[in-house]
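Record minuted for completeness.

…
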Amino acid sequence: MEKFSFVFLIREDTCWNQLFSHVDNLKKSSDEVGNIAVVAVGTALLSCLRFTNLETIKETISRLSDEGTQFYLCINTMSRYGIKEDMLLPQIAIAHEGGLLKVAKLESMGYHQVVL
């Protein structure tokens, strides 16, 4: 059976709970779902920072990362907001090529894009 991979492009900090719901639902279909990646741009970066007070979001990112979901933050967004690598949650990798190019690269590898 073919497995489908997904990349979520999250732009707004208010969309994390919706994203987590989608990822959890996809994981319930594990026999049909391969890889899941999340690329954060714009204000979504606020929940990717070590100093966020949103413990539930930090815990969910940690849990999903432990379960194999990959998280990336756009280098251009980091630069625009003055965010340094040591400010990120440890589960967040930097998309050095930029968030949109990271999404395009994952799409070229067969990922299906979902925009939130």
